[in-house]
Amino acid sequence: MSFVEVAIKVPLQRTFDYKVNEQLTTVLQPGMRVMVPFGSQKKVAVVLAIKTSTHIASDKIKPISAIIDNAPILNTQHLALLKFASRYYCYPLGETIHIALPAALRQGQCPDKTSISMLALTEKGAKLPSLKAKTQLNLLKQLAQSGKSSLTELKALGFNKKTIDSLVSKELLSQTIEHDNQWQNKPPTIAAKPTLNKEQAVACSAINQATGFTSFLLEGVTGSGKTEVYLQCLETVLKRGHQALVLVPEIGLTPQTVNRFRRRFPDTPIMLWHSALTDNERLQTWRFCEKGSCAIVIGTRSSIFLPFLELGMIIVDEEHDSSFKQQDTLRYHARDLAAYRAYQQQIPLILGSATPALETLHRAITDKYKLLTLTERAQTSTDNQFKLLDMKGQPEQAGIAQASLAYMRQHLARGKQVMVFLNRRGFSPTLICHECGWLSECTRCSTSATFHKAIGQMICHHCGEQQPVPRQCPDCGSTQIFPNGKGTEQIEEFLSAEFTDVPISRIDRDSTRLKGSLEKALNDINQGGARILVGTQMLAKGHHFADVSLVVILDVDSGLYSCDFRATEHLAQLVTQVAGRAGRSGEPGQVLLQTHFPEHPLLQDLVNNGYQDFARFALTEREEAQLPPFTNMAIVRAESHNIKHVIDFLTDLVPVGNVSGIQLLGPIPAPLERIAGKYRFQLHIQALERSFLHQYLAQLVDYLSTNKLAQKVRWSLDVDPIDM
Ligand code: ADP
Ligand code: ZN
Ligand code: ZN
To answer: What is 238-267 written as a DSSP string?
Structure first.
C-alpha cells in the first residue's frame, strides 16, 4: 500500500495522510492537487509527499477520492517557499497554500489562460487628435505615456469599456491579443536612457556582477536615481532571458511607475499584481508567470507567492514600507520572504530605500547585505533645507503657524506648489463639549470618533462605526459642541478661505475613494492645476511632484513620544519621505517642521545630519535597549468580549515550554485596549537567538492546538511584528 501526505485548508498545524492505489503513485507527484474525504465533506488537498508508511492505523486511513491535476501546480521550490513561510510564521500549511493560490486553483478547477488583450494607440491615435470628450482624450494621453495597457489597467484608472470601444471604433485605438510571448528568444528593445552617474554605475556593476545569492541595500535619497538603477539592472536580467519581480508598496503602484517600466522596455511583457485584480486577472498573471510568458511582474506584497519559470532577480522598492507586512492571517513580511526566495533561487535581491528599515540597515552594517549608496540627487545637486519651527507661543490658525503661512505665500507667489502634510484624515479627531468636557468616542472601541464634516458623520477609524453628528452634548444637553484637534478636511477648509484664489487639492483616503480618483488628482497636480496640496501619508510616498518647493509638516510631535519603540523610526522615515517631495525641479526645497520640541535630539539629528545619521544613532539605542534587530520578537495577541477569557488565556501561556533563552512580557493591554467591543491583550516573546525563539514558538503552537482556553478567544501569533 502507498500513502500520500497532503495539506488541507483547515486551521490546524498539521498535515494529513491518505492511502492511494499502488498504480497511482507513478502519476502522483508533490505539488499536485487531489480531492480527499474530510469529515463529511470532500476537500481540495495539495500533495506534499508520497510515502510507503503512515502512523495512521490501517482501518482508520481513508483513500483519496480523485486526482485533480496531470502535473504539479506548485513545483518543488514553490512548495519549499510555502513550507518555510508556514513554519516561520507559525501558520497552518494548508491555509498558507490557500492564501498563495488564485481562487480557481483553490477551488480545484484547472482553467488555463493563454492570452491577454492589450490596447495601444494606432498611428492616427498617436497624433492625439482633438476630441470633444475629455475622457477620450485623457485615455489617448495615458496610452501615449505607457505605450500599451491592458483593459484591466485602464479600467483601474477609471476609464470604462464604452470609452475604449468608442475609440477603437474611431480607429484611434487598436486591440491586440497577446499570446504566449516568446520574449526570451530575442533581445529586448531598450528605449533611450540616461547615462548613469558614477555612484549609479558602481551600484549597477556590483549588482550585474553578482553570482548566486547576494542581497544589496541600495540606500539613496529620493530622486537619487534608484529606479534608474533597477531599470538598468533589469536590462541584464532580460537579456539573459530571466524573469524579474519588482515589489512595490501598495501606494507605490501608480501609473507613473508602471509607465516608466513599460516605456523603457516597450516590447517586454510586463504585468501588474495588486489587491484590486479580479480572480480571473490573478489567474491570468499566475499562468503567464509560470509559463514564462511574462517577463516582469510589478506587484504588491502577495506577488511574492507567484510562480516563476526562471526568476532572475527580485527588487523591493521602498523596502521600509509597512505595507509589505501582512497584518492578518499569515502575517508574513514580503521583504523577508523575498530574501528567502532569492537565496533559494540563488539570485540577486535589491532592497531600495531612501529611509531603510533599521533591520535592513543593521544587516548592511554587519555585512550580511552589500551596501550601495547614492548620495546625490540625479537631476539636481541641491539638498533640501530643513527648518524646525518652534510652535511654543506661535500664533496659529487651524494648527498652521503664522510663520508657515508666510512661507507658503512666498513660494506661491513664485509660482511654486506647496504641500501641507498632516497624517490624520477627517475634520477633527474628536468633538468636545464646551460646557462639560464630553469627548466624542466610538461606542465599541477605546478611541475617539472622528468628525467628518463633509458627509456629516462621526466615524471610528478603527472599527468603521458611523454615527450621525450629535446636535447636543449627550451628557449635559448643551449645544456648545465644537471640533477638537485637526484633520486634513479642516486644513483644506481653512486654506481655501485663507487663499481664496489658489486651487487646492486634498489627498487622503476619503478624497480618493472612487476608482481612478487618486490618479486623476495626481495628474491634476502634475499638470500644475492644484497649487496647494493637503494630504496624509498617501502624499508622502513615491509620487513625483515636479513643482513642489515647500513642504510644511504640521504635527511632528505625536511621533516623538509614543509607547511603540518604532515610532521614532517611523517618524524619521515619514519626515524624510515627505521632505523628498520638495525640490525636485532644480532649486532646493524647503521643509518646515512644526514642533513644540525643537531641541529634541532626534529632530536635531534628523534635520542637521539626515536620516542616514539618525538611523545609525537609533541602532545604537536599540542595541543598548536590546530591542529588534538586536533581539528577535513575537507577539501573541488575544481578544474577546470577555476580558477574563483574554487574560486567563494569555496568563496560562506564560510557563509553557522550555523557556531558557526566552523572555516573556505580559499579558499587557494592547495599545488600543478595546476595538469593536472586544478587549485586547498581548504577550511579548523575545529571544536573543532566533533558533530559541522558533523552538519556543513550535512548543507554543503545539500547546495551543489542544488548549481549551484558546477556544474562548480569538488569538493570533505575529512573528517579527512591526507594530506593538
Ligand atoms: P529614485 O527612484 O531614487 O527616486 P529616480 O530613478 O526616479 O530616483 O530618478 C529621479 C529622476 O532623475 C528621474 O526623473 C530620472 O529619470 C532621473 N535620473 C535618474 N538617473 C539619472 C541619470 N543618471 N541622468 C539623468 N537623469 C537621471
Ligand atoms: Zn456636555
Ligand atoms: Zn470603533
So the answer is: HHTT-EEEEE--GGG--HHHHHHHHHHSTT
- The residue whose CA has the least distance to atom 21 of ligand 1 is 378
**To test ligand 1's pocket by mutation, which of 196, 204, 219, 228 has the most ligand atoms within 8 angstroms of CB?**
228
Q: Following CA atoms 605, 607, 611, 614 in sequence, which dihedral angle do they give, to the nearest 10 degrees?
A: 10
| CB 458, CB 468: distance < 8 Å | yes
- Is it the case that residue 244 has pLDDT exceeding 70? yes
Ligand 1 pocket residues where CB is under 6 Å:
194-197, 200, 220, 222-228, 378-379
* Minimum CA distance residue for ligand 1 atom 5: 225
Give the orientation angle of helix 226-239 with respect to helix 255-264, to 10 degrees. Answer: 40
Centre of ligand 2 to C-alpha 480, Å, is: 8
CA distance linking residue 172 with residue 108, whole number of Å: 42
Ligand lying closest to the C-alpha of residue 224? 1
Beta strand residue intervals within 21-139, DSSP E = 33-38, 41-51, 66-67, 116-121
CB 259 within 8 A of CB 141: no
Residues 489-534 pLDDT 10s? 999 999 999 999 999 999 999 988 887 788 788 888 888 789 999 9
Beta bridge partners of 60: none
pLDDT 10s digits, 100-136: 999 999 998 877 776 777 888 888 888 888 888 888 8
Percent of the chain with pLDDT over 70: 97
Look up residue 198 and give its three cell numbers. 558614477
DSSP letters for 16-34: EEEEE-GGGGGT--TT-EE
Cα(229) to centroid(ligand 1), Å: 9
The alpha carbon of residue 127 and the mean position of all alpha carbons in its chain are separated, in whole angstroms, by 38
Instruction: Return the ligand number nearest the Cα of 352.
Output: 1
Q: What is the mean pLDDT of residues 550-571?
A: 88
Phi, psi of 607 (to 5 degrees): -75, -40
Write out the three cell numbers for 276: 484590486
CB atoms within 10 A of CB 149: 24
**Please, which residues have CB within 8 angstroms of residue 502's CB and are 6 or more apart in sequence?**
412, 495, 531, 532
The predicted pLDDT at position 339 comes to 97
Euclidean distance between the first and final Cα of the chain, in Å? 51
Q: Please give the distance, rounded to the nearest whole angstrom, from the Cα atom of residue 351 to the centre of ligand 1.
A: 17
Phi-psi region of 398 (alpha: psi -120 to 50; beta: other; left: phi over 0): left
- With a cut of 0.95, is the ipTM above it? yes
Average pLDDT over residues 655-667: 81
